[in-house]
Structure formats: structure tokens, C-alpha cells
UniProtKB/TrEMBL annotation:
Signal peptide: none annotated. It comes from Paractinoplanes ovalisporus. InterPro entries: Epimerase_deHydtase, NAD(P)-bd_dom_sf, NAD(P)-dependent_oxidoreduct. It holds the Pfam family Epimerase. PANTHER family: NAD(P)-BINDING DOMAIN-CONTAINING PROTEIN-RELATED, PROTEIN YEEZ. This is NAD-dependent epimerase/dehydratase family protein. Residues 3-205 form the NAD-dependent epimerase/dehydratase domain. It comes from the Bacteria.
Amino acid sequence: MNVFLTGATGYIGSRVLLALIQAGHSVTALVRDPSRVRAETARLVTGDMRDRDLVRGLAAEADAVIATAAPGDATSAAADNDFVEAVLAGLRPGATLVRTGGIWVYGSGDAITEESPLSPPAIVAWREEIDRRALTSPGIRSLLVEPGVVYGDGAGIPAMVFGGAQLGDPAALQLIGPGTQHWATVHVDDLAELYVATLTHGSTGDRFLGVGGDSPSVASLADVASRRLGLDGRVVAEDPADTVARLGAFGEALLMDQQASGEKARQTLDWKPSRPTLLEVFAAGEYDPS
């Protein structure tokens, strides 16, 4: 299949690119810096996801579009809206669009599924309308992958646990919030395989939670991080108000208590996440400061 991919130099998209090529697909990657692409067999097009004419033209050439790029700032809503409009204008009837959402749109919950009601924090409240419009667009097969907290290679949100302040005497590692909240997690390589499985086996309108089934508490993560940092497991909670004051809307999202199994993707797509859990990765030293 000829796939048009965005975000091929990013944390998730770079792994999706490799997984697509390994699965035998041909890939056209829209990138701002071709030198950062690790796959020599991809066709690289230099440009930006905000360039409507370029995006529409590349979508028209493709059998499928997989979108993993996002500015990650205040322009994200406008950029995603413009991108979706351009892709929908370019795709041929029967072509496929796989977009990236996120589990945060469901708010807190101890058994989140794709059928859970949406309750997004402010940082992702803009997603709902664009997701709905894309998933219900007539004439194409449109799907949504909703990753949890992505980890692997010492990168992503989990690295923040090791970056907490060391407070008191003896020093203790400061938690992100109270630590009682859980994060639904997924290894970046398992997630990349989910995108390929969604492309191959998903049905129009499907949404799939990209979570590996492990939802550790922030306190359990910080305990391991504290030991890796030589602090003997000592941690200290942070008042949620201080977390929000420090991190803003991002902090509000990190305070949500989310647990999910990702069972739908396993059952529907035969997706088999197999990488070590985040706690195992922490214990193995993958996130230790260099």
C-alpha cells in the first residue's frame, strides 16, 4: 500500500515509519528536515503539515494517510483542522485515513474503553469536533489511534519522573502531583505496530486505545526512579495546585487517574503488545540520567 505519513521524524512517527516499511508498505513521508529520517527506502517530501495544497496533493496520490505529526503547542488545533480538511479534500473514494488522538480525551477512569464518555481536560478539548468530523467523513475509511502515555528509549513523558526536584534532607524525589494517579501506558514500538494493524485490519469509524494494558501509579514509578537515583525509594507528594501552577494545562492532564486495558485492539486487530512494562524499563535503567 502507498502510505502518506506525517511525523516521520517524531518520537512516534519515526517508529511508525519503520514498522510500515517492515510490513512491506511504500511510504511517502512529509518532513521539515529530511536529514532526520532513519529509513532510507522512504520517499521524502520536504514541507509542513500546514501547507494545504501540498498535503492535498500528497493525499491524492496515496492509498492511505497516517497522521502522527502535531505542533504540540497553542497552534495544534488549527494545524490539525487544516490538515484534516486538506486530506479529506485530496483522498480518493475508498482510501484510508488513520489519525492520532489520545487517551486524555476520556478524562479520569479506572476502566477506560473506546465506549467511555469523553471528558477532556482543557489541553485536548479541541480534539472532539475534529475527531468526529474525520471519523464520519463519507467515502473513505477513517480510523483513530488514541495512545496512552508513550515510553521507550528513555524518552516521552515518563522521563519527567526522573527530572523531579530532590527535596529535603535526606533528599526525596518530588512526585508529579500526589502520586496516587495512574497513567495508562504503551511502549513506542508496540504502538507503532498498532498503527500498522489499524491500517491493515481496522474498519471505518473505529477508534483504538493505544495502551499496552499496564497502568502504573505515578508513586510506583517514582519509587523505582528514586532508587535508581540513589535516594532509596524516598518520594514526596506535590500538591495538585502546585502541579498545575508549575505545568499549567499539561499538569492538569498529568493529574488524571487513567487505567485501560486496550482489549479492543487485541481482539479486533490481533494486536499483541509484547515489550517490557514501564516499571520494568525504569528498573532496567533505560531512563537513568546520563
